[in-house]
Design a protein that fits this description.
heterodimer, A: 116 residues, 7-stranded mixed beta sheet, 4-stranded antiparallel beta sheet, globular, B: 114 residues, 6-stranded mixed beta sheet
């Protein structure tokens, strides 16, 4: 079965550079989520989109922005990168059902960003 | 506010034994979902099992089962007949109410001894 596809899998950037991560959700999934996981930490929610509109916002820095396109893929743009942005970035997708309390959520394999 | 608590930072279990990973949660929502994910050292987040708050029966997926005790607000993961490949970090997570995002507990690192 098709899974959530993330690219690139690994990315190395210098401080103050810009990075873009891409996410392709499972076909027919209409909701995309972005998470950031620092070393030894649990994943922290950044932002989510439902039907191309932002649906929820977490601890996403102002230097970061994201959007969901008409084909439901999503991109996370990170500017003025800092050393602390080094982390594993996960995208996840799900299909909205009646109420948000139900429905499985599947993660991609993650994009590992290293800022030097 | 919602919260997930995993009180076992690490566990060691002998191969082929059953293991229970603890998870308690706090929410005021009536409708919510509980998840368990496995994260091996390679980093990917693997979905294991899901339990809806209105599901009357405990969820099972192969060797994984979720011991859901709603009144106690606990959602423990039980792995039967553990294998060496089960060594990984395990996260309990939940989603509920009007929030679409899921929140994670701090995780339990499970190590299986041969």
């Amino acid at each position: 079965a098709a899974g959530v596809i993330q690219s690139p899998r690994h990315l190395i950037k210098e401080k103050r550079e810009t990075a873009t991560l891409k996410c392709y959700p499972i076909p027919r999934h209409d909701t995309v989520y972005w998470y950031q996981q620092g070393p030894g930490q649990d994943p922290q929610f950044l932002i989510s989109f439902y039907e191309k509109m932002q649906s929820d916002k977490g601890s996403i820095p102002d230097r970061f922005s994201a959007q969901q396109f008409s084909d439901y893929h999503s991109e996370l743009n990170m500017s003025s990168l800092e050393l602390g942005d080094s982390a594993l970035y996960f995208c996840a997708s799900s299909l909205k059902r009646e109420g948000w309390g139900t429905g499985e959520l599947f993660f991609g394999e993650g994009s590992r960003l290293t800022v030097l | 506010a919602q919260k997930i608590t995993q009180t076992q930072p690490g566990m060691f279990v002998q191969e082929k034994e059953a293991v229970t990973l603890d998870c308690t949660y706090d929410t005021s929502d009536q409708s919510y979902g509980l998840f368990w994910y496995k994260q091996p050292s390679s980093g990917e987040m693997i979905f294991l099992i899901y339990q809806g708050s209105y599901d009357e029966q405990n969820a099972t997926e192969g060797r994984y089962s979720l011991n859901f005790q709603k009144a106690r607000k606990s959602a423990n993961l039980v792995i039967s007949a553990s294998q060496l490949g089960d060594s990984a970090m395990y996260f309990c997570a939940m989603r509920g109410g009007s929030a679409s995002k899921i929140i994670f507990g701090s995780g339990t690192r499970l190590s299986i001894r041969p």
